[in-house]
Design goal:
599 residues; nine-stranded mixed beta sheet; 19 helices; HetReg/Transcr_Mod; Heterokaryon incompatibility domain-containing protein; HET
Length: 599
């Protein structure tokens, strides 16, 4: 159907928007309505809908201005729930109120989104249709909050510890599933609720609850998980439950950010902590969808859907590096794939590709499969402290760009990777909940260390294990090195949840490696023998770099390495058994700083 039958031009310079007037009707009647133009400065009272577009495979017709208009099945379901029998409903819905075929109109609406939602009399969050346990979960929200408040001497961790297996299935699992619904994973919904927390209603099927219940319940659920409470019930854990628990704390994080009190997100934190973890049909929305969460003077560019993804992501990466005056962003890059011995790729570690994107530009459509090391762009460390951590003391000499997409940096190549471990893979935080699994993995590290270091004693091997599992720990652990030795040798003194959390974060998605100079360390899956470890000026952690090679030179099938040209693979940890810090290790004092070209 031609767009002119539904849309007339908006006066975008005057802040004009469209509202959808949903006509009253019986359940058996088709969904119908009209479009009304209004100005944001003095709009007609309206509600704003926050929902997920979902798959476009199933389209359902409705009537707008008397003409058929196709919507996806999820939007159709919420329109059925919103429609009343005796009165009109005025609502703003992006898929209907924005002419999606008009790029200029789409561009103009992005900066207006926060105003569209903040000026609404009510924001309706639609989690989706009713499921077998969704009504139970919605009804449990006030009960869980009340129980936590009335048992103020017992935190959520204790409450979950005290829960039986049946309680876990009937209470905590339905709640986690509610947080695992697709709405929570979409990048656009973040800004839709960020500035409107006082008038949000959350609907799931016919059930509804105020947004503040989800804010509090999410904190309870997430804190209990972090404290290790769910480790007592590992059998109920699965990827869906984990997804809900993992994402449950972000409503409280959003509420804590108040632009009026100078508590807004930075661009890099919004990208790495919010956008990267969420889905977007259009990869450019990973950037455009979070712009309204940050001050305008931090915007890398105006919303422009005529930009291709490669150009946009490169522009954003350079903007962050120039603003922060360091290269900490490089640690957010995930380049390597992890092939198995038969040449196939393990699907969990298969990276998504964006045509032509340089390896030093983070691919924000790619989920990180290993948690970041502390102190970088994805941590909460202020920029001033990040600069103190890095080795770069002169921004003018930190990096430069050549030919548009080659990043010239300054650093030292510490050595080459000669061996990378093979064995168990930690791909989920609950993989190490069980103490037996933890021992199995520790034994794997032990055997691997023995295999790559022939002159190593049991004691120094234990030291290396401990160093790898607790690297970059910010403070001493209550579960000490001595406790670790007793646990490894006798199985006594079960590891504390604090130790398990740190070990999981360090080992998750990483491999043990050894270098040509005898050093040990951790590298992301996808690193391989022949890769180099480098310290870069302005970067807070060592980086894995892969020499650029040509597959064919002068018609001959052979590989030729290009001096000082590299692909970024990911961040690394490097440590020798004697625990000598890298910057004090005499073996590295003679390595020369040089220009390295990252492609």
């Amino acid at each position: 159907m031609a767009a002119w039958q539904h849309y007339s031009p908006l006066d975008l310079l005057q802040g004009e928007i469209r509202l959808f007037i949903l006509s009253p009707g019986e359940e058996s009647q088709p969904i119908a309505g009209t479009l009304l133009h209004t100005h944001l400065r003095a709009p007609r009272p309206y509600q704003a809908l926050s929902y997920t577009w979902g798959s476009s495979a199933i389209q359902v017709p409705i009537l707008i201005n008397g003409y058929p208009f196709m919507v996806n099945s999820n939007l159709y379901a919420v329109l059925l729930e919103l429609r009343e029998k005796g009165k009109e409903i005025v609502v703003w819905i992006d898929a209907i109120c924005i002419n999606q075929a008009d790029i200029q109109e789409r561009n103009a609406h992005v900066p207006m989104m926060h105003e569209v939602y903040s000026r609404a009399t009510q924001v309706i969050v639609w989690l989706g249709r009713e499921s077998e346990d969704s009504n139970l979960a919605m009804a449990l929200l006030p009960t869980i909050i009340y129980d936590t408040i009335t048992n103020s001497d017992e935190n959520a961790n204790v409450l979950v510890h005290r829960s039986s297996q049946d309680d876990m299935k009937s209470i905590w699992r339905p709640l986690a599933r509610l947080f695992a619904r697709p709405w929570w994973t979409r990048v656009w919904v973040i800004q839709e609720v960020a500035l409107t927390s006082n008038h949000i209603t959350v609907k799931c099927g016919k059930a509804e609850q105020p947004w503040k219940f989800f804010v509090v319940a999410g904190v309870i659920l997430h804190d209990a998980f972090v404290a290790g409470a769910f480790s007592h019930h590992p059998r109920i854990m699965n990827d869906s439950i984990l997804a809900g628990i993992t994402i449950s704390s972000w409503p409280s994080e959003i509420v804590s950010m108040d632009p009026e009190k100078n508590k807004s997100w930075t661009l890099e934190h919004a990208l790495t902590k919010l956008a990267r973890l969420r889905d977007a049909t259009d990869p450019r929305d990973k950037v455009f969808g979070i712009l309204n969460l940050i001050p305008v003077d931090q915007w890398p560019c105006r919303p422009d859907y005529s930009l291709d993804v490669r150009t946009l992501y490169t522009k954003v990466a350079l903007h962050i590096m120039e603003k922060n005056k360091n290269l900490c962003l490089l640690a957010s890059c995930v380049t390597g794939d992890w092939p198995t011995k038969d040449g196939h790729l393990r699907s969990y570690f298969r990276r998504s590709l964006i045509a032509g994107i340089p390896s030093w530009v983070p691919n924000w459509t790619q989920m990180r499969y290993c948690p970041p090391f502390p102190g970088g762009i994805e941590s909460t460390v202020p920029v001033e402290e990040q600069l103190a951590i890095t080795s770069g003391d002169s921004f003018d000499m930190c990096f430069r760009v050549e030919s548009g997409d080659i990043l010239v940096v300054f650093g030292r190549i510490l050595g080459e990777i000669v061996a990378v471990g093979e064995g168990p893979v930690i791909t989920r935080p609950y993989d190490l909940f069980d103490g037996t699994k933890m021992l199995v993995f520790a034994n794997f590290i032990y055997r691997h260390l023995l295999s790559i270091k022939h002159k190593i004693t049991d004691e120094t091997c234990m030291d290396a294990e401990w160093a790898l599992m607790t690297c970059y720990a910010s403070q001493p652990l209550s579960f000490t090195r001595a406790h670790y030795a007793l646990w490894r040798q006798f199985g006594s003194l079960q590891p504390s949840s604090e130790f398990v959390d740190i070990a999981t974060a360090r080992l998750h998605g990483r491999q043990v490696m050894s270098m040509s100079n005898g050093c040990l360390g951790l590298v992301p899956f996808g690193a391989k023998s022949g890769d180099c470890i480098a310290i870069l000026k302005g970067c807070h952690v060592p980086m894995v770099l892969r020499p650029v090679e040509d597959e064919e030179v002068e018609g001959k099938s052979k590989k030729l390495s290009h001096p000082h040209r590299y692909i970024v693979v990911g961040e690394a940890y490097v440590q020798e058994y004697d625990m000598t810090p890298l910057d004090q290790d005499s073996r590295f004092q003679n390595t020369e700083s040089q220009e390295l070209r990252l492609e």
